[in-house]
């Protein structure tokens, strides 16, 4: 048995020489990961925008929608590993989706720290191009360049 270098409680020896509570207080592994993001939704065809410009039909709290949400979250890479993700129930009319994520990261001399946090997605309405063409019956798109000598 060893002692934590911060608070002095008895711990099993580990690479950081700290107890879990002190290690969590010192290091925030979710730093750099946004806690809020925007999802675009077309009300006509009920599809979600999957970047860059693909519209995907997905039911609420489905695997497809979870995949779209996770692609919107930046900051998950080789250093910060996603362990688990799932939806937290919200009112369907609230225009909010909450995803509970569990991530892992190696910190301080090889100690692996795991953290759970919530990312909130705000659903904004945006008409997709297909529905926009149907809505505006005679619709033209042009790019004009005027040059002068």
Automatic annotation (TrEMBL):
Localization, UniProt: Cytoplasm; Nucleus
Record GO terms (molecular function): ribosomal large subunit binding
Entry keyword annotation includes DNA damage: no
Subcellular location, principal: cytoplasm
Pfam families associated with the record: NMD3 (PF04981)
Keyword entries, A-Z: Cytoplasm, Nucleus, Protein transport, Transport
One Gene Ontology term, aspect cellular component: cytoplasm
GO biological process: one example: protein transport
Domain Nmd3 N-terminal per the UniProt entry, residue ranges: 4-149
PANTHER family: 60S RIBOSOMAL EXPORT PROTEIN NMD3, NONSENSE-MEDIATED MRNA DECAY PROTEIN 3
Role this protein plays: Acts as an adapter for the XPO1/CRM1-mediated export of the 60S ribosomal subunit.
Stated family: Belongs to the NMD3 family.
Protein name: 60S ribosomal export protein NMD3
Organism: Capitella teleta (Polychaete worm)
């Amino acid at each position: 048995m060893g002692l934590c270098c911060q608070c002095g409680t008895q711990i099993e020896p580990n690479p950081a020489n700290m107890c879990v509570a002190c290690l969590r207080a010192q290091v925030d592994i979710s730093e750099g990961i946004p806690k809020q993001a925007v999802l675009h939704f077309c009300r006509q065809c009920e599809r979600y925008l999957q970047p860059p410009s693909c519209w995907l039909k997905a039911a609420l709290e489905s695997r497809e929608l979870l995949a779209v949400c996770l692609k919107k979250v930046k900051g998950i890479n080789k250093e910060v590993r996603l362990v688990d993700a799932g939806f937290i129930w919200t009112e369907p009319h609230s225009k909010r989706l909450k995803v509970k994520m569990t991530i892992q990261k190696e910190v301080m001399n090889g100690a692996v720290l795991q953290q759970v946090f919530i990312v909130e997605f705000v659903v904004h309405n945006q008409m997709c191009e297909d529905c926009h063409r149907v809505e505006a019956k005679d619709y033209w798109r042009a790019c004009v360049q005027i040059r002068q000598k």
